[in-house]
Amino acid sequence: MPNTQTIAVAMSGGVDSSTVAAMLRAEGHNVIGLTMQLWNQRRLVGHAGMPEAVQGRCCSLDDVYDARRVAETIGIPYYVVNHEERFEREVVQPFVEDYLSGRTPIPCSLCNNHLKFDQLLIVARQIGAETLASGHYAHVEFDEDRGRWLLKRPADLSKDQTYFLFGLTQEQLSHIIFPLGGMTKPEVRERARRHGLVLAEKPDSQEICFVPGGDYKRFLDAYLAERGEALPDTTGELVTTSGEVIGEHKGIHNFTVGQRKGLGVATGSPLYVIQIKGDARQVVVGGGDELYSRTLRVRRVNLIAVEDLREPLRVTVKIRHRHEPAPAMIEKTGAHEALVTFDNPQRAITPGQAAVFYDGDVVVGGGWIV
User: Fold this and answer.
1) What does the pLDDT read at residue 358?
2) Using one digit for the tens of pLDDT, what is the confidence trace for 279-323?
3) In whole angstroms, what is the distance from residue 151 CA to residue 173 CA?
4) Which end of the chain is more exposed for a tag (fewer CB within 10 A), N or C?
5) How far is CA 158 from CA 8, 29, 364, in A?
6) Residue 209 is among the residues annotated as catalytic for this protein
C-alpha cells in the first residue's frame, strides 16, 4: 500500500474495526471513520411484548457512540450514514418473508453484500477515499495468474468470516482491505490496548442487530404488529417422510431443518424436522438418519476465484457458518445456479442458508440453498 492513502474504515463500534482504524492511522494514512445507522433499536419496543434494547447487538446506538469516541481518540473525521430504509427493504423484509415461507435466513450475509460493502464504497468515493477497510477476519489479494481478486480465509480460523462475504464482487474486492486477516483475536485486543482504545475489552456482538435476545418469533410478531398486519396463517400438518399425517403445527415459521424440540408430538423415538414445505404448509419430520443428504442446489451464485463454472469443479463446501467445509463437486445447472454433490452425506442442509465453496483457503464463490 502507498504510505499516504485515504482510507475509509467501516466502524461498527467494536474492538475489531476500531483497531483497524487505529492501526491505519498510526501507519500514516488519511483515515475517515464511517458507521452505518441501520436499525432503530427502540422501534418495536412495546409491540407483541418486545423487550427493551439488550446488550451485545451489532450496530446499536451504544456502538455508534463507541465508534465516535474511538474516532475522537485517534483524531480522525467520523460520519454516520443513515441507511435504515434500505436496510429494512433489503435485509429485514426478506428475513421476515423467508421465515414465513419456511426458509431459515442469514441476514448478516445480505447486509454485508448489499449494504456494507456496496453503499459504504459509494460513500467512501464521495469523500475522496478509494479504499474501504473493515474489521472482518479475511484476506483479499490479487492473483496475477488468474487475473482476479481473491477472498481468502484468515490466519485465525476460529474467527473466519468469509462465509458471510461470499457475495462480494471483483469490483468491490479491488477496493477493500481486511487488515486483521493475519491476526488472532487476542493479538487484536493487545493492539487495541497499545493504541489506548478504551473498548479493548469490549465483548463481541453475538446477535442479529434487529432481533433482541435472538427471539426471531417474537420479532416477527412485533414487526408485523407495528405495520398493522396480522401474522399470516402458516399452520398445517406434521407429516412423516412417508406422507403419514401425525399431528398439526402452529406455523411453519416456528421450525427450521434439524430442529428436535417443540414439535408437539410424542413418539417412541426422537423426531427431527427434515423438510419444510412452504407452499403446502407442511412440516416433514423423521429420524436423525433422514437428516442427511448428499446433494443441494443453490441459486444467485456469485463466483470470485473463477469467472465461470465451465465444467464440474472439485471444492469443499460450508453449508453454515460453523460447518467444517466438506469435499464436494459443484456443477453449473443454469444461469447463476449450481448443483453441489458431497462425497459424504451432510446433516441438516437448510434452505435459506448459504453454501460457500472453497479451494483450500480460497473462496471460490457461493450461493443460496434452495
Assistant:
1) 98
2) 999 999 999 999 999 999 999 999 999 999 999 999 999 999 999
3) 8
4) N
5) 26, 29, 20
6) yes
**Which pLDDT score, from 0 to 100, does residue 104 have?**
93
Which three cell numbers mark 200? 479493548
- From 58, 59, 108, 209, the catalytic residue: 209
What's residue 56's pLDDT? 46
Pairing of strands 245-249, 326-334: unpaired
* Cβ-contact 290, 346 below 8 angstroms: no
Q: Is the pLDDT of residue 57 over 70?
A: no
Q: What does the DSSP assignment read for 35-47?
A: EEE---TTTTTTS
Catalytic residue among 58, 59, 108, 111: 111
> In terms of CATH, what superfamily is 292-369?
Translation factors (2.40.30.10)
DSSP 8-state secondary structure symbol assigned to residue 116: I
Q: 104-118, 120-134, 178-192, 333-347: which range is least confident on average?
A: 104-118
* CATH top class, domain 6-135+179-214: alpha beta
Distance, in Å, from the CA atom of 37 to the CA atom of 359, rounded to the nearest integer, reads 35
CA 279 – CA 263 distance, rounded (Å): 19
Write down the pTM of the prediction.
Answer: 0.92
pLDDT (0 to 100) of residue 1: 47
Q: Is 116 left (phi over 0), alpha (psi -120 to 50) or beta?
A: alpha
- How far is it, in rounded angstroms, from Cα 322 to Cα 308? 27
- Centre a 10 Å sphere on the Cβ of residue 47 and count the other Cβ atoms it contains: 16
